[in-house]
Design a protein that fits this description.
Structural class: mainly alpha
Strand order of the largest sheet: 1-2
Number of helices: 11
Distance between the termini: 50 Å
Largest sheet: 2 strands, antiparallel
Length: 316
């Protein structure tokens, strides 16, 4: 047993036993023990969260699956999306064709999988446009106040007064048809929502003590915005971006359904639903199954956004 030499009050040396390192007092063993128990705690917390929130787990898994569809579609289907067999036209769902076939004999599941790349890319562009532009305007309005704040927020009120789908249609008329133009139009229509949330958070953060201290110290206003206000106001805005992702999927699919998206034979989710509406009585799967995919993605993003918002309320 290891010993430690201590001195009594009269100066006499006395050996005091030291606890063995196998019980966790040594540096290496304590580090190993802490790492072991941390891993167990993480696994236990993850399993508890999966049991307590199965809907959130299912939503995350579904979004991961859809993202994998967009990145590596060839790993999920063997059928080409644009080539069909006329003899296999309008076949119902089966083990060979999971989602059935369309009027040209093309595998519908393959078209849904390959179309996820176009639909999700357009959705990402729309959310990025709304997030960047809206956050910049809201941050500027909440930090400058005065006539700049009034001008920006009156413009946002005008945007909010117009239905988002109608505003997107008006912008598409100016920009022209196409997936990119649809994404930009949907993103501009969502700028006001991001601006309002960012302005509210900026007003809250600007009254914090550390911001007042930085301002009193002579720190430049743009440095305060980027270093103090923006990082502490970004949480609710990022939670809103998850919600807007689902709304953008729905808006882009709606505009593609109306014929403003990429021309055939591009496989966008909205255009797939539009292409099957003429065969709704004879081939229900052409509309129902792509519609279920769109609805599942929208509901999953809403569930994830709700989890983000709950986390923000817990930490605030």
């Amino acid at each position: 047993m290891a010993q430690q030499v201590l001195a009594d009050a009269d100066g006499t040396a006395q050996a005091v036993p030291r606890p063995p390192e196998e019980f966790g007092s040594g540096p290496a063993s304590s580090h190993t023990a802490r790492g072991h128990w941390n891993l167990k705690a993480v696994l236990k917390k993850a399993s508890y969260g999966a049991i307590k929130h199965p809907g959130l787990v299912f939503a995350v898994l579904l979004m991961v699956l859809v993202l994998l569809w967009a990145v590596i579609p060839g790993a999920f289907t063997q059928w080409p999306p644009d080539t069909g067999t006329p003899s296999d036209r309008l076949r119902p769902p089966s083990a060979l064709h999971w989602f059935g076939t369309d009027s040209l004999g093309r595998d519908l599941y393959s078209r849904v999988v390959h179309g996820s790349a176009t639909s999700l890319a357009a959705t990402a562009v729309a959310v990025a446009v709304g997030l960047v532009a809206g956050s910049a305007l809201g941050l500027l309005a909440g930090s400058t106040r005065g006539w700049i704040d009034d001008a920006i927020m009156r413009l946002m009120d005008v945007l909010l007064a117009i239905p988002s789908l109608l505003l997107s249609l008006a912008l598409i008329t100016v920009l022209g048809f196409g997936t990119v133009n649809i994404a930009v139009a949907v993103g501009v229509a969502s700028v006001a929502n991001f601006a309002r949330i960012m302005r509210a958070e900026s007003l809250r953060v600007n009254t914090a003590v550390y911001v007042e201290a930085a301002r009193s110290s002579g720190v430049r206003w743009h440095t305060i915005l980027l270093r103090h206000v923006l990082p502490n106001a970004a949480g609710p805005v990022l939670a809103l971006s998850a919600l807007e992702f689902g709304m953008a999927v729905l808006s882009i699919s709606s505009l593609s359904f109306l014929g403003f998206g990429a021309p055939p034979p591009a496989a966008e989710w909205g255009s797939l639903v539009a292409g099957g509406r003429d065969y709704l009585v004879a081939a229900w799967w052409l509309v129902t199954l792509p519609g279920i995919v769109i609805a599942a993605v929208v509901l999953s993003t809403n569930r994830i956004s709700h989890a983000f918002q709950s986390s923000e309320r817990t930490h605030s």
